[in-house]
UniProtKB/TrEMBL annotation:
GO terms for molecular function: protein-L-isoaspartate (D-aspartate) O-methyltransferase activity. It is found in: Cytoplasm. Pfam families: PCMT. Belongs to the methyltransferase superfamily. L-isoaspartyl/D-aspartyl protein methyltransferase family. InterPro entries: PCMT (IPR000682), SAM-dependent_MTases_sf (IPR029063). It comes from the Bacteria. This is Protein-L-isoaspartate O-methyltransferase. Its EC number is 2.1.1.77. Gene3D superfamilies: Vaccinia Virus protein VP39. It comes from Comamonas terrigena. Keywords: Cytoplasm, Methyltransferase, S-adenosyl-L-methionine, Transferase.
Length: 262
């Protein structure tokens, strides 16, 4: 890649919005209910809204090597079962990708956590990221997690059906720092640039030049890329004042990156 032109202003890095902080729910103590009292209604989501279920998932992520406290907290605070189809809710906290319609999938929790931890990099120890661009909103799950570690998130989706699904999924969470865009992810979203981080949920033969242009100096891009042998690998690109540093990591399996809208 050619040496980049420095953006006109840097993306600011700061702690995530206080409105996204996870606060424990404290219920006042009361007198014990008499034995004849009617039973409490069963929790919705087949019990999957229990914090204990998410806690077990977080424990597995930590055991697998995810060490960022910010990422683990964010993963534990987002109810993944609210982003999958009703028929699949019982698999929501398993470490598996699941179909979300239109030949797309929601990534494994371990992959989401791994990529966000890579995106944070050293900044994870300094309180989080500034402005982030997500390529491929899908059902909105990763955008919700990003919204808890970044000051501002722009997430772009090329499939209108998924864009609307993500909007419906995210609306109840009231994440005012997450902005959904319907458009061609291959051209990025210049209106929000420069970005402290760019993360992609689809892999192509090369990283689009627009993403590199919209990345701030000092920023990081994490994306799958298809190698010449057809295998996808995870690629990390750091943008410096002198050019780009690329790091090739483990094999991954994402849906193909496509242009245009549908």
């Amino acid at each position: 890649m050619n040496q980049p032109k420095r953006p006109s202003f840097p993306a600011r890095l700061g702690p995530p919005s206080a409105q996204n902080a996870v606060r424990p729910v404290v219920r006042p103590a009361g007198n014990a209910a008499p034995r004849s009292a009617a039973p409490m209604p069963a929790p919705r989501g087949v019990g999957l809204d229990s914090a204990a279920v998410r806690s077990r998932m977080v424990q597995r992520l930590a055991a697998s090597g995810i060490s960022s406290a910010a990422v683990l907290q964010a993963m534990g605070s987002v109810e993944r079962h609210l982003f999958v189809d009703t028929a699949l809710v019982n698999q929501a906290y398993e470490d598996t990708s699941l179909p979300i319609g239109l030949a797309q999938t929601i990534s494994k929790p371990s992959v989401v956590a791994r990529m966000i931890e890579l995106l944070l990099g050293a900044e994870g120890a300094r309180g989080g990221l500034g402005r982030v661009l997500e390529i491929g909103t899908g059902c909105g799950y990763q955008a919700a997690v990003l919204g808890r570690v970044a000051r501002e998130v722009y997430s772009i989706e090329r499939l209108r059906g998924l864009h609307e699904k993500a909007r419906n999924n995210l609306r109840p969470l009231r994440l005012t720092n997450v902005h959904l865009i319907f458009g061609d992810g291959m051209v990025g979203y210049a209106q929000g640039a420069p970005y402290a981080g760019i993360i992609a949920a689809a892999g192509g033969d090369a990283v689009p030049a627009a993403w590199c242009d919209q990345l701030a100096v000092g920023g990081r891009l994490v994306a799958p890329m298809v190698q010449s042998n057809g295998q996808q690998i995870l690629l990390v690109i750091d943008k410096t004042p002198y050019g780009f540093n690329e790091t090739v990591l483990e094999a991954v399996n994402f849906v193909p990156l496509k242009s245009g809208i549908a």
